[in-house]
Amino acid sequence: MCVLCYELAEESHWADVISDDSDANDLPVRARHRRKRILAAVLSPYGLEVSDPGSGRYVVIADRKGASEVAAGLPAVWQAAQRLSSRRPDVLDPVLLEVLASTPRSDR
Amino acid sequence: MTVLGLPALGAPPLRAGGRRQVTLLSGFLGSGKTTLLREELSKPGVTPPAVILNDFGQAMVDDLLLDSADDSPVVVSGGCGCCTRRGELARALAEVLDAEQRGLAPTRDHVIIETSGLSDPGPIAFTVAQDPVLKHHFALARICVTVDALTGLHSIEQHPVAMRQLLAADDVLVTKADLAGSDEIEHLVSRLRQLNPSAGVSVTAKGQLLRVVLPPIVFGKTVASSDAAGDADAAHVSSIRTLELVTAERLDWQAFAVWLSLLLDTHGPQVLRVKGILDVEHVGPVVVNGVQHVIHRPEHLNRSAPPGTRLVLIVQDIDTALLERSFHTFLNI
Asked: Which CATH superfamily is domain B20-213 in?
């Protein structure tokens, strides 16, 4: 638990670390920005938007009616997306793959 | 190193990040796990590991076969370590730790868990990797799976749990090779490599290593092989398929992480194995290893590796062409 905000420490997720010696509690700014852009591209075909509140591992997932959820880490993102969208995001969804393939590659 | 990776006496400690290394010794009923372990423990000049035995039956026999005067194995009986006895398996590991810290047992760098013949290694690996206490003291080093040279292929084709054991393996240990002909062994090794191209195959007889067939992907180097991955048609067992994903350019970790996490979220039960070396942009080579939905903590490879990414996925009831298209599409976001 964080002694400043009393937030329960989340379990580190494999996607947030690629080294035993790194701290998984936060992502570097560059990685956060890149992940947010990828998530926005993936969730857009499902009518969802992604924004970055700027701290921790959090992103905000929102639908176009104003409903939103805060998600810490990728598993929470998919759970939130499933609740907010009528269609479940799927890496094998041909519609998603078509949209992604037709989108110009973003700057890294 | 022995067949199960036991270091020689006086060898540098195996601990990874201060954690004791855990080897899961799995394999179908009667495939020779205990015989192999007994032979390993009796080899002179080997650093003895702590041993945990799990058996489906209430009355254990294996511990009597293995028991030595100075250090008895910890026994978890009356069910499988992957389901009914999973909590007890975690407690057994905690007991190993507790006994060490109390000075009741020598300090061990290595633990071998011999699972029951009906156990699925995936949930056991999950216990070691995710238990809030154990994960700080133990790290899963590898999963060794014994396959009987005579009956192993039949078991794999007839019993789903035997197939899951094979697909979870980092090292496949063919046992009882002295009882089968050389043609049978060749056929078996070829099939095992088709079914799980990410695993190495060792042929043994009476606990002695006869030969080793390296996997096409070895940590740190790529091994050319004519009968290994890529033969998708030959890798079919019902609906299980093997897919090898290769990229020449460096991989964007965030795109890969989003892709794999969404794949596991949506199709996790159908993803049986993930293993490979990723050439990550700005980072270098990273080893990824997962059994079913459990992805182990990715690690930097502290050795040079050929450029490019090679990732093996073993999946069930998934269109591998669509999966490959999805992988490359996500990497180009």
From this structure: P-loop containing nucleotide triphosphate hydrolases (3.40.50.300)
